[in-house]
Amino acid sequence: MLNFLLGLIFRKEVDVMAMAYAMLIIKGKKSFNDVPERLKEQVKEILGDLDCGFFVEG
Fold first, then answer.
1. Packing angle of the helix pair 40-49, 2-27 (nearest 10 deg)
2. Domain count along the chain
3. Is the pLDDT of residue 4 over 70?
4. Nearest-angstrom CA–CA distance, 22 and 34
């Protein structure tokens, strides 16, 4: 049970961090290359969902 709860907590933190990186990329403060490797897939998905996938390619 504890492992399940910890998994949920840490999973949520990763989602929040991915969203934060996506917003920083959109605002021009960071680039996709600045995103930690473990978050890149989530950030790429978020940017795609926001019709901002061009930030990943450029």
1. 60
2. 1
3. no
4. 11
